[in-house]
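Reviewer 2 asked us to include a model.

Predict the structure of this chain.
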Amino acid sequence: MRKLTFILFLFLISSIALFGQQFNDFFYDKACRVDFHLCGNARQTDVYLDKVLQEPFWGGRRHQLTKDLNLGDFRFRILDSTSMKLVYIDGFSTLYHEWQSTPEALKSSKSFEQSIQFPFPKKSVTLVIEKRLNLDNWQELFRYNLTPVDKLIQRKLPQSFPIKNITKTEISEKAIDIAVIAEGYTSKDIKKFYRDAQRLSENLLTHEPFTKYKSLINIYAIAASSVDSGISKPQDGNWKNTAVGSNFFTFYEKRYLTTQNIFKVRDLAALVPYDAIYILANTKTYGGGGIFNFYALTAADNILSNQVTIHEFGHSFAGLADEYFRENADVLDGMYNLKVEPWEPNISTLVQFDKKWKSQLPEGLQIPTPINDENKTKIGVFEGGGYLTKGVFRPYYDCRMHTNKSPEFCLVCKLAVERMILFLTEPTEPKN
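Predicted model (structure tokens):
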């Protein structure tokens, strides 16, 4: 018995060692960034390489490198070029994909900047970029052999700007690292930016499940300076020279605030280790935007900024969908195919509802769930979401992903956020 126990002990130790060495076996403690362009229209998508960079910090996960949470409209895989073994995988979404659902994409083609990041490889690897076809299937768009000693990989340090640690509780490899980037703040506005970033951070940490895991969250404020103060408003003919060139009126939607200058955003984020990017816009005008594993962007000084901050981070950090809809058409109302189950964890077309929150429903619940005082306070299947009044369903009557009036995420959204936190910080499989 004692011998068996000793053997099991050795097996456990060797397994832990092997698991812990996996990152160091394949990667350096630096980041590899690949910049490319997504080009096309409503009917086609092409990928064109721009450049490859080595960046000084890797803030992402060091465990579960080949675990796929099946989130995002796109994904990329890193394969060992010799064995073709998967060594890293991640999903992401894009502004380009949203644009593909607009009327403009039916009659014209465009190019959008896109960037991905993974640990810098020690050996030659193959990068594969794929586009989602449905919940379980992918189409390969691009394949590229990357050699880490390639002389054309850019290894320059990013442009320096002042950085303040808003919260710093854990070493990067055990934490969720959030890079907060100043947008529309001049060099004279740095103190205001730090105050705004502090307020954003304090607000984030008062919402579950971020409160539960606040000891694992590092937040860095990057004081990038802009020539002009404020944010561009094309609808008013008002353009400004700002750090990442963000603007309202994205896709001609007045409140949609985004930037298409992704390479600039990544250059600034590279000043710190990061899992997530939050761009803080120096404006009182209501608006924002958030895209999964891409960035979140919020107006700093609007009366609803605290609410919007959480909503947009739900998009960018955990891949949560918008649960709201309008009686009149939304600019993005063509994003969801009702014959396909969406990948976002908090909406469903009921096509593959077994893979969503169906197991959490009370026995005998009516689907769709009628809206009444009793049902408003519990999980259900409420019609309306993903910008559509019909055919898309959400798990709660109200949630922060549905309205600014809701004080918190619903249970389904909280679980999705928590799963992402554990996925990025724990060396064990995340719980479903």
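Helices lie at 2-26, 95-100, 190-204, 262-269, 305-318, 411-425. Residues 324-331+364-398 form one domain. We have added this to the supplementary material.
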